[in-house]
Design brief:
The protein is an alpha/beta fold and 168 residues long. It has helices at 7-24, 42-47, 59-62, 68-74, 106-113, 142-162, and strands at 34-39, 78-83, 123-127, 164-167. The model has no long low-confidence stretch (mean pLDDT 89).
Length: 168
């Protein structure tokens, strides 16, 4: 969808639907109240803060998506809005050389990128401008290839560590 067509409103409806269904059906693996929203850059990430219920301009209240009873339930959600850069691996060569460093495990990656999610599993991932998130092809520009690889590899690592419900 093009800019200004209401993607963020649709995202907020999807989040509310997921979270409220998970609360009503806590054992149902189709639903999650742990939501990761990934943006293509800082400007978009900042615009997506309206997906956080605690944001003063949140879309749930602005568009009256939930009533007061559901509002209290929606507040149980853990929602992280970040940009794809947060999914980049740690540079193993950075920092003091005294400490032996090795590759970051998928579990350590999950805890670093999503510390608020605790022991959560079955994370719902929403990719804004998901055309940037794919397995890179041979004929792509190097910068786009790197971005796509970091983005999709980060989601792969989250899935390996705790499970991804859907990558939308």
């Amino acid at each position: 969808l093009a800019t200004g067509t209401g993607k963020t409103v649709v995202m907020s409806m999807l989040i509310a639907w997921q979270v409220l269904n998970k609360i009503a059906n806590p054992k149902d693996p189709r639903f999650s109240k742990n939501i990761l929203v990934i943006a293509p850059g800082l400007t978009v990430r900042d615009r997506l803060q309206v997906l956080l219920p605690e944001d003063k301009d949140n879309f749930y209240q602005q568009f009256m998506l939930v009533d007061s009873t559901m509002w209290q339930e929606l507040l149980q959600a853990k929602i992280v809005v970040t940009n794809w850069h947060a999914l980049a691996p740690i540079n193993e060569n950075y920092g003091p050389k005294v400490v032996k460093k090795g590759p970051e495990s998928n579990e350590a990656f999950f805890r670093r990128v999503l510390p608020d999610f605790g022991n959560a599993t079955n994370v719902l991932v929403i990719n804004d401008e998901a055309h940037h998130c794919h397995r890179a092809g041979q004929d792509e520009e190097e910068e786009e290839k790197e971005k796509a690889t970091i983005w999709i590899s980060g989601i792969d690592r989250i899935h390996e560590a705790r499970g991804v419900l859907k990558a939308l």
